[in-house]
């Protein structure tokens, strides 16, 4: 049973604050992914939890006990890095067994532990090999085995598969997930890859410039991004964001994206929007490509638009549509639209529309 908590954690490197008032509660057995751009403070947060970095303010608690003054070795947490850092002169068996040496475990128990973890990681037939004879994926399996062999309270992983090629990354991603389901150890995983984050996490912690932006399940952060940063960081292709002008009367409502064409919206949404709207009144509309509906035939509520670009991606196409002065990316079934320059019709699905306050970037939380 291992829970981890960060309370008002702050960290400076010189005058630069790289972790800003971080608060986070991680439950026993949770798989948490810290997601953000390079330099946003993910690694520093992970290193602070492991005890490889001191913090300047706040508390780090493991199972309710403050540990910020404990040495790394007294926190009983294992860490796996992108570079495998295996000992080249040792066999796979010796590499995995290495952390057990300090515990003075008997030879027979060590042997059992190593073989058990090797079996879970499916490297039991590689135990006599040296690291130089292994593939990148197997090397990382050995590094994970070495981290897990002493049954640490929690597992911290810093871009553990970032150095592998795309196919292997996908394989290892599934493997890490399988391992977590089997072992159930509390895990904190750092990545800048949102697909990796979405596929692995119970909850994703999105960071930007040292500050936590949103914490939620992959579905939550995708469907209800709390601000413009999260909206554009999660999801591929990225969410369309366009300045929006809202016009409403008693029983009809329209949202314009410039250029004189307006999409019809249910007035219920607009009245919520009016209530939530900040004083600045500057709004941005957010819509994911799958929320931009395209029709080859004219239909009620659809506006005429021009096809600007078609990206065929195999199972579906991404189509850039010119709506007045604005480009909106839509997702259509493969081959549905044919040529750039063609006229088609488009509508924005009000149920998938997000509104943000442009000044603060915050979501107005308005939904149908
Ligand atoms: N030892 C250090 N001394 C000074 N500045 C540092 C140190 N370590 C990290 N930084 C700075 O702190 C900020 C956060 O770095 P950190 O490595 O935590 O970010 P990250 O989100 O993990 O990025 P990356 O994915 O590139 O590792 C960066 O601006 C980085 O340059």
Automatic annotation (TrEMBL):
Q: Which SMART domains match?
A: AAA
InterPro entries assigned: AAA+_ATPase, ABC_transporter-like_ATP-bd, ABC_transporter-like_CS, ABC_transpr_MalK-like, ABC_transpr_MalK/UgpC-like, Mo/tungstate-bd_C_term_dom, NA-bd_OB-fold, P-loop_NTPase
Q: Name one Pfam family in it.
A: TOBE_2
Q: Where in the cell is it found?
A: Cell inner membrane
UniProt-recorded Gene Ontology molecular function terms: ABC-type transporter activity; ATP binding; ATP hydrolysis activity
Q: How does it sit in the membrane?
A: Peripheral membrane protein
Q: What is its main location?
A: membrane
Q: Which domain of life is it from?
A: Bacteria
* GO biological-process terms attached to the record: carbohydrate transport
Q: Name one GO cellular component term.
A: ATP-binding cassette (ABC) transporter complex, substrate-binding subunit-containing
Q: Where is the ABC transporter domain?
A: 4-234
What UniProt keywords apply to this chain's record, in alphabetical order? ATP-binding, Cell membrane, Membrane, Nucleotide-binding, Translocase, Transport
Claim: Cell membrane is one of the keywords in the record: yes
Q: PANTHER family given for it?
A: MALTODEXTRIN IMPORT ATP-BINDING PROTEIN MSMX, TREHALOSE IMPORT ATP-BINDING PROTEIN SUGC
Would you identify the family this protein belongs to, as annotated?
Belongs to the ABC transporter superfamily.
Q: Protein name, please?
A: ABC transporter ATP-binding protein
